[in-house]
């Protein structure tokens, strides 16, 4: 059996038949995955499991993007258990259309790309005709772009522009960059604020017993401390800062809080809510510093990959990311700053690079496989 996901004998039969004519992939989907089940006892509908929904949505997205990246084809969706008396496919459309829409390029419409019909021989099957894409569809770019308020929403599109733009430049815009120094010192701490190259993260846990215990464990164990940085999305910020002309700093130990500010407008006094930053630091024992530093480097190195503007792999020695422990508030309380220097290329927080799929022939079925990084870059820069 070479299909790498859930299937059934019906799915297999139609896959074989369709593959004789076209590229086709099949997704097996029970109707209860997108329709609520009526609970007779409680006399109310029970919603489908969110985990199953997520898994199936990802499978569909992978399959559709693979077909679009492989000269188009057909996606067969087996709606197992569909009642012959149920005329509506509204819930199924709601289940998949938003995902299908994310696999469309800016110069296309939904109607250009997809055509859905019910299979005449078996109404449990929906067949979606899928047009090929003129440029490779990246389902997850695995790299971030940042604006002052946070990450840009469409990083796949941003990555495409970034790679295309700079691949034609003789002298990439990063060439003027100098070595970035740690941002924090006795002066900068006074007016600290978040902006595109400064990301502040609190190390605050509620004083509920369980949370307090978790905090103590994290402070004791460097492995857990670094896990916590990953939970706070350190690798994502690293990839974003590496694209800024001046790099960036990720700082742990400064939290954001809501605060009231008094003001007067047209003679009227009132208060409004805004944000302020609280420097609280971390009670981290000095002897843990070297191990934490080492673990951060090892995990970044192992979990990332990078390319220069020609699409060639960059040496890790050309990437400068350093950890600094600042003892500037009071003794025993530290602020951790990860300084990220810009690189002449792109960093990804996945060691395989961006996620894009293609269809591969594996007898007797077709299979979705992940595209190689070099093929993605060639395709993006060529179109
Ligand atoms: Zn099936």
Please provide a written account of the structure.
There is one protein chain. Helices cover 30% and strands 28% of the residues. The protein is of the alpha+beta class. The strands form 7 sheets. A 4-stranded mixed β-sheet has the order 1-4-6-5, with helices on both faces. A hairpin with a 4-residue loop joins strand 2 and strand 3. The protein binds zinc ion. Zinc ion is lined by residues 7-8, 10-11, 28, 78, 80.
Shape: globular
Q: Give the low-confidence spans.
A: none
Helicity level = 25-40%
How is the largest sheet built, in terms of strand order? 1-4-6-5
Order of helices and strands: HEEEHEHHEEEEHEHHHEEEHEEEEEEH
Tell me the distance between the termini. 36 Å
The ligands found in this model are: zinc ion
Nearest-angstrom radius of gyration? Answer: 26 Å
How many distinct domains? Answer: 2
Task: Give the topology, please.
Blueprint lengths: L8 H11 L4 E7 L6 E3 L4 E3 L3 H19 L4 E8 L9 H12 L8 H4 E5 L6 E6 L15 E2 L2 E2 L3 H13 L30 E4 L7 H12 L1 H10 L2 H8 L6 E5 L1 E12 L2 E12 L9 H15 L1 E4 L12 E10 L2 E8 L4 E4 L8 E6 L2 E6 L2 H10 L1
Bound molecules: zinc ion (ZN).
Zinc ion binds next to helix 1 and strand 4.
């Amino acid at each position: 059996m070479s299909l790498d996901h859930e299937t059934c004998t019906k799915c297999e039969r139609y896959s074989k038949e369709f593959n004789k004519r076209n590229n086709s992939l099949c997704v097996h989907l029970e109707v209860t995955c997108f329709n609520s089940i009526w609970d007779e006892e409680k006399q109310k509908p029970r919603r489908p499991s969110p985990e199953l929904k997520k898994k199936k949505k990802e499978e569909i997205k992978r399959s559709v993007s693979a077909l679009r990246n492989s000269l188009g084809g057909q996606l067969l969706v087996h709606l197992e258990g569909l009642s012959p008396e149920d005329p509506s496919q509204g819930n199924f459309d709601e289940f998949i259309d938003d995902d299908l829409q994310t696999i469309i390029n800016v110069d296309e419409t939904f109607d250009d790309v997809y055509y859905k019909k019910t299979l005449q021989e078996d109404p449990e099957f929906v067949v979606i005709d899928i047009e090929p894409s003129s440029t490779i569809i990246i389902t997850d770019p695995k790299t971030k772009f940042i604006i002052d308020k946070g990450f840009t929403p469409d990083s796949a599109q941003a990555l495409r522009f970034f790679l295309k733009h700079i691949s034609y430049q003789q002298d990439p815009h990063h060439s003027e960059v100098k070595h970035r120094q740690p941002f924090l010192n006795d002066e900068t701490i006074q007016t600290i604020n978040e902006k595109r190259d400064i990301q502040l993260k609190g190390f605050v846990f509620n004083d509920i017993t369980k949370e307090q215990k978790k905090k103590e464990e994290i402070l004791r164990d460097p492995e857990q401390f670094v896990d916590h940085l990953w939970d706070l999305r350190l690798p994502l910020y690293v990839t974003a800062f590496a694209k800024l002309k001046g790099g960036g700093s990720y700082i742990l130990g400064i939290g954001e809080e809501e605060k009231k500010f008094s003001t007067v407008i047209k003679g009227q006094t009132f208060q409004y809510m805004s944000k302020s930053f609280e420097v609280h630091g971390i009670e981290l024992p000095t002897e843990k510093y070297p191990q934490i530093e080492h673990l951060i480097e090892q995990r970044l190195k192992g979990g990332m990959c990078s390319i220069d503007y020609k699409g060639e792999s960059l040496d890790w020695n050309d990437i400068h990311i350093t950890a600094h422990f600042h003892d500037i508030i009071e003794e025993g309380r530290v602020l951790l700053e990860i300084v990220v220097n810009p690189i002449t290329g792109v960093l990804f927080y996945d060691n395989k690079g961006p996620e894009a799929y293609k269809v591969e022939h594996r007898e007797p079925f077709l299979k979705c496989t992940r595209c190689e990084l070099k093929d993605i870059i060639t395709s993006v820069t060529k179109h």
